[in-house]
Design goal:
Layout lengths: L6 E4 L3 E10 L10 E7 L6 E5 L7 E3 L3 H10 L11 H14 L2 H17 L9 H22 L6 H8 L3
Antiparallel strand pairs: 1-2, 1-5, 2-3, 3-4
Helix pairs in contact: 2-3, 2-4, 3-4
């Protein structure tokens, strides 16, 4: 169970702070269910209510500083997504984004970067959809690292490049 004021990663919301744990905020629910009250750690006014024992919700603790150091040290070893047709590749990206796994986000970023540098399918440009997946992966990764390390989000890329193993 998570605690009030703890940071977590929650689905499409990204990094959130648990502001409270409350009984059902929904008046039509008759059973006593506890909910986490989540607010984005990086702006936005939305509130998410996640059942404490809701196994279906994608909620996980944020990485620790040690987890971040380990991820950065193994970034060069993480494999690219295998070349396949674009539809299959976009499905792999989608699954990787939804996994909430920072190493999968790194794989997306690396794959799109590699495909941008080396061209794809006879030199055609990387699609806007692929770039959007990479941008989304960067957003989630950078905001999590920013939150844990207490550095501005715009400084995360420099932090990674300064600390990645050669």
């Amino acid at each position: 169970m998570f605690e009030v004021n703890e940071y977590v990663f929650y689905g499409s919301e990204g990094i959130c702070r648990i502001d409270d744990i409350v009984s059902s905020p929904f008046s039509d629910v008759k059973i006593d269910v506890k909910y986490y009250v989540l607010h984005s750690a990086h702006g936005g006014n939305s509130t998410a209510y996640v059942p404490v024992d809701g196994a279906s919700a994608l909620i996980r603790p944020v990485m620790s500083k040690g987890d971040i150091a380990a991820l950065i040290s193994k970034m060069n070893e993480l494999p690219l997504f295998e070349e396949c047709n674009l539809k299959q590749l976009k499905e792999k990206y989608s699954i990787a984004i939804r996994s909430g796994d920072p190493s999968e986000w790194v794989r997306i970023i690396k794959t799109v970067y590699d495909r941008t540098l080396n061209g794809r399918d006879g030199g055609k440009k990387v699609s806007d959809a692929e770039r959007a997946y990479a941008d989304n992966a960067k957003k989630y990764l950078y905001k999590e690292i920013s939150t844990v390390l207490g550095i501005p989000t715009e400084d995360v890329e420099r932090y990674i490049t300064d600390n990645v193993s050669a």
